[in-house]
Structures
1.
Amino acid sequence: MKALLSLAKKFLAAVLPGVIRPLHALWNQILGFLFLVLAVLMVRPVWQGWKEMELGPEHFLRFLLSAFMLAVMLGFAIHAFWKARRIGRR
């Protein structure tokens, strides 16, 4: 029984890194894509906020918040893709 457990442990130690690493990279690519989609969806509110910025302080605040969200989502997307590439290179 101990020999079988030892053999199973060696098998898992050999196989799991080869399975988990691509899944980890794929997960980061999926997250990067989702954040990129969210960033693209934020382009329209930023553009509208830019055009309406002179109408008052609430429009300026809306523009700033939209631009901040666009920058955050784009930053998360770039970071996720960069991390997926780094995981894939190991």
Note: The helical segments are 2-41, 43-51, 57-89.
2.
Amino acid sequence: MKQKLTLKQWCKKAEELEIALSKQYWKLETGQKYSKPKIKKYETKINKLAEYFLKNFDRPEILKDTCIGAVASTKTFQLSLKFKEERNKKIRSKKHTIKGNPVTWDTWRQYVTKATHNERKKIYDKFIKLTPLISPIIKEKFQKNKQIYKQYGTTPLKLYVKEHELTTKELIKIITTLRNQVKKPFQKQFKYYAKKLLHKKPEYYDDLYYVRNAIYQDMTKDFRGVDPIKHIKKTMKEMGLKPDKIRVDKKDRPKKYASPFCMAIKIPQDIRISFKPENPLNDANSIYHEMGHAIHFSSIKPQLPYWTRTIISNGLAETFSTFFEGILTDYDYMTEELKLDPKYSKEIIRRKNFMQLFGAAFYTGNSLFRIAYWRENLKFENCNKRYAKELKKSMGMKIPGAYWQLHHILPESMMYVPSYMLAEIQQNKIKTQLRKKYGKRWWKSKKAGKEVLNLMSKGTDSEAGDFSKLTKKDILNYVRSITTNP
């Protein structure tokens, strides 16, 4: 770069490029026409800008750490694009169709909601069998990332724990404590609901994403009249928050990313969410979750420095999404705000609590697998075996080890999965404090909303981003919240 930049100039250029790139990725992930040349151009410029920062600036440290990740990301983005394309092309079954097209990785979650157990098993087994077709891309991406981080004397794990104000030992302790607490209640509840709803025992192909739809299949009729976007916006407004500028894309395009997501194009001005309709109840969970992300990002003070405004740790980002999704386990909210039948509401909450247990069992295993990959410098060839081992410890089930390569986070992100668990514990801690101050209907209080807004508005400086203050008591309180039914 010929021109010598001040920090202020560097930040302005960085944000402009990130906005342009995000708009292209938004089109890609929502199944619309996007430009590969533009993505390549913006990724290349971001890489050069990040390298410029690392050569010319030492502070702020959080920006320095982020630039290391940016260099790694931009140098592997073509592998990321190739992975998404190859996964959709090669992880597919012509024998199984949806809307006249072969079932692919992007459509199988919708397909299995109406499939027989035998069909689900066949397509699951087929997809697992096909994973070697995408393994080389995943392997190359992780190895390249490892080399890049090593050049700067660090690893994704080291930067992750630093960003969350933890040590690796503290992170492992939190995740392991949670795993040990949820394993037995999860197994008990899984057996119960598998028998009640699936009419069989739990099996390896009954994965989280199938079960979270199947568990509500006999309850969707009474929920169809609920408009989740309308209700979550109403709740946020009652708390004094401003959700109207958030964009929602709910069109069901064939190439649209299977998982719901929120994308911060420009914080706080341009925030968008996307989801593919699956099941009315599960859609509500997704919308409340993604709107939680969106209201968080759109509530950050625009006058904050670029790095404080835009660099949000994964755990902090997930805290407010799980916070708002969790309102759907509040009995008073379900009966008073959504006007649902009391008996029906209680059963929904029981099942949602089970899904929380399922998520905790699954993601603690995922998290400890990912931590081990970086901490122990695992060989790629040993990953499937280690993944199966960690899930057996967490869930008590034999899951095919190659499943991690089909997951929507594990093959794509270097260090993300522990964030879900850190966030769940943190949001429960915040909610417990709000109940003590403002009563059980805290979500109707503008004072409670002001406290939440204060936590969200500070960007990376939010007190909610310090996970070192989580205690064993906080973990046990969270487990109690998802094992105590109304």
Note: The first strand starts at residue 92 and ends at 98.
